Amino acid sequence: MRGPYAVFLLLFGLRLSIATTICFSLNLHNSEVRCIEEERQALLKFKKGLQDDYGSWLSSWGSHEGDCCKWEGIECSNRTGDHVVKLVLRNKHLSSEISSSLLGLQHLTYLDLSFNDFFILPKFIGSLTKLQYLNLSTSFISGTIPPQLGNLSSLISLDLSSNFFSGTIPPQLGNLSSLISLDLSVNSFSGTITPQLGNLSSLIYLDLSYNLLEDSIPEMFGNMEALVHLDLCCNMLEGSILEAFGNMVALVHLDLSSNKLQGAIPDLSKLSLLRELHLSNNQLNGSLDNVLGKHFKLQTLYVSFNSFKAVITETHLSNFSSLRMMDLSFNSDLSLKFSPDWVPPFYLDILLLGSCKLGLAFPQWLQTQKKISWLDISNTRISDTIPNWFWDLSSNMRFLNISHNQISGTIPLQWFLTSYIKVYARDVSYNHFSGPLPHLNSDAILLNLSNNLFQGTITFICGTNRSSLEYLNLSNNLLFGELPECWENKMALSYLNLANNNLSGRIPESFGRICSKENHVKSLHFQNNNFIGELPVALMNCSSLRIIDFGENKLFGRIPAWIGTSLKNLVVLRVPSNMFVGSIPLELCQLTSLQILDLSNNNISGTIPRCLKNFTAMAQKDLKDIDLQFYLLLFLDHYISPNNNRFFKHPYIENAFVNTKGLHLVYDKILGLLKVIDLSRNKLKGEIPSEITSLVGLIGLNLSGNLLTGIIPWSIGRLERLESLDLSSNHLSSVIPPSLATLSFLGYLNLSNNNLSGRIPTGTQLQSFNASSYASNQYLCGMPLLKMCLGDETPQGPQIGNKHREGNIQEHAHSHGHIWFYTSIAMGFIVGFWGVCGSLVLKSSWRHAYFQFLDRMGDRLYVTIAINMAKVLRNFKTHCKAEDQEATSA
Predict the structure, then answer these.
(1) What is the pLDDT of residues 836-845, one digit of tens each?
(2) 363-372 burial, b if ≥16 CB within 10 A, otherwise e?
(3) Which one of 137, 201, 298, 736 has the fewest beta carbons within 10 angstroms of its own beta carbon?
C-alpha cells in the first residue's frame, strides 16, 4: 500500500479487528436472542438517570415488546445466555453521571460512552471484570483515574483521551496484563511516567501525549519490545533520549516532540520498521548521522526547532525513496548542499526548511517535487529570481512560505487563480518582488505580500464575490490609488494591513461592512498613507477590534465617541499625525482594555479627561503579556497522523509604532507588554490631572508640546514602572516633585521649555540626565544644570566627574561649617561685652551701684580668706607640737 501511513492503517485495522473478534466470538445478537429481564431493568434505570439533549437517541429503549437486545446501541449474545455484552452510546449528546445500574450488566465486554458529558469516572467500573473494550474519551471527565480500573484484567483496549483527568497515572494500570492499546492523551496528568506500565508486555499502542508529565523518560520502555506506536509528545519530559529506544524493534511511530529533551540522538539503526520520527521542539543537538543515511524506510522526519549542526548532501538522502514529509526548519546551523542537477529519489508532500541554509541560488531540485503541497523555504538566504517552472509547481500548494529572502522578479498575475484545491497561505513577504499585484484566489486564507516593491492599485480585492481571506498584508509597498467599494464581499477578514503605501482618498463606508455577525475583525493597520476624510461610522460595527492604527494620514474631524462605546475590546488606538480637532471624548475612558493610546500631533484641544483613570489595563502593575499575535489555524487532515488530525498553528506577529524614549520605534513581540499614553503636540490646556498617576502600569507618558499649566502632579512617583516621561514645551510651573527622583526605571526624561523653578530634587536618577532635559526653565537650578542654587559656592556642571564633584561638595560643606562657628563666637562676645559695659557707661546710677557692689564683694571676700588662713595656720601649729611630743617620748 502506498502512502506514509500504510503501517498505521494496518495497526488500526488490527485494533478494529480486535473489537470485531470480540463481537463475533460471542455470537452477537440474532433473531432468536432475547434479553434477560434483570438486565433490561438495569438498562431502563441507566436511561432514567441520563439527560438526552436531543430527546430521541434513546427513544427505542423500552419498545420491541421489552426485548432490550433490539434497542439502539445494545447487543446481546446467546453464547452467554442472552446477556448484554455490548453497550455503545458514542456521541449521543448524553449528560449526567454514569449510573451504578450498569453493575447489572456483569457480562458486558464492550462499553463505549465516548463523546458525551459524564464528568466523573465512577469506581464501580472496575467491577465489570469481563470488560475487554472501554472507551470514555471526550466525555468532560475530571478528577483522577480510580485505582479500581486495575481490576479489569481482561481489558484489551482502554481509551480515556481528551478529558480533564489530573494527578498521576495510577500504577494499578500496570496490572492490565492483556492490554494492547492504551490512550491517555490530551489530559492533565502530571508527575513521572508510572514505571509499572513496563509490565504491559503485550502493549502495541501507547499514547500519553498532551499532558504535564515531567522528569526523564523511564528505562522501562526498553522492555516494551512489542510497541508499534509510542507518542509522548507535548509534555515536560527532560533528560536525553534513551539508548533503550534502539531495542524497540517493532516501533513504527515514535513521537517525542515538544518536550525538554537534550543531547544527541542515540543509535536507532535497529529500528528497521520505523516510518515516523517526530523530535521537533526540544533542545537536541549534535548531528543527524544516527537518522540520515540509516533509516531508509522513513516516511516522516520532523526535527525542527532544535540545535542540530550538519551539512546535508544528496548522499544522506539518496536512499530515502519512501520519504514524504520532512521538517528540518529552525535549526540555524543546518545547511543543505545539493548539486544543481540532483534528482531526489522521493516525492515529498511536505517540505519545511525555514531558517536553514540553502545558499544563494534557488533550489533547482524542487522542480522534481510535483506532489508537494506544503513548502517553507523562508529565511534561507536565497538571492535569486524564481524560475518559471516554480509558479506552475506552487499553484496547487496549500501552504507556501518563501518570505525573508532576497528573491526578485515579478509574480504572474494569474498565479492565485490557477489552484484547484483549498489554498491556506501564500507568504512572499520581505523580498524584492515588483510589478503589479497578482489576482486573488477566492479560497486563500492568508496572503502576505508585504515589504516588497509591488506597484499599482488594490482593485484586485474585488475579484471574488465572497472570499475566505482572513489575513491580508500589503504593507510596505508602492501601492497607490483609492480603496475600492467592494469590502462587503470580504466577510472573513480578521487582519488587514495596508500601512506604508501611497494609498489616498476617503475610507469608503462599505469598508465597515467587513464587520458582520459571523466575522471578527481584530486588526486594522492603515498608517502612513494619504487617506482623507473622517473615520467611517460603519466601523462601529467592528466590536471585536483590538488594534486600530490610522496614524500618519490626513484624516480630519473629531475623534469619534463611538470608539469608546462600541469598540470596547481595543488594546491599541493610534491616530497620530492627522488633523483631528475638538476635545478628547469622555467615552474613550470606557476602553478598559486599552494599553496604547496615541492621539499625538493633531489639533485636539480642551483638557485631559480625569476619567483616564478608568483605563484598567494601564492601572495594573503586572507585566502579563497580552497576546496580540494573529494565529492562522490550518487543518492538516492526514498530513500529521491518520488517527489524530491536528491543526497547524502558524503565528503572524502584530506590530505598532510607538513614540517613546524620544524615538519612533516599532514594537512587535513585546507589543502586548507596552502601556503608553501619547497626547503630545496638540492644543491641550489646563492642568495635568492627578488621576493619571493611578495608571501605575504606565511605561511611557508623553504630554509634550501642549498648553498645559499648573504643577507636575505631586504623586508622579506612583508611576513606578515609568521608563519614559516627556512633559516638555508646556507652561508648567512650581517645583519638580521630589517623588520623581524615586522612579528607578526612568530612562528618558524631558522637562524642558516650561516655567519650573527651585532645586532639581536629588536622587539616583534625575542628576544622571543631560542638562537639556531641564533647559529653558528660567528659575530651575541645581545639578546637572550649570546654574547654582542659593547657598551653592560654585556651579556644578555635568562635565565634573562624580568623585571630583563629591569631593567639592564635602569641602564646600566643611568651609561653611568653619565660617558659621567663628561668626557665632564673635557675635556672642560683642553681645555679652556691650550688653554689660554699655549699660554702665550710659547710666550713672547703675555705675555707682555696680562699683559699690564690687567693693562690698571685695571686702567680704578679703575677710573670708583671712579667717580661713588663720584657721589653717593654727591647725598646722597644733599638728607640729603633737609630733614633737611623740618624738620626745620615743
Answers:
(1) 555 555 555 5
(2) bbebebbeeb
(3) 201
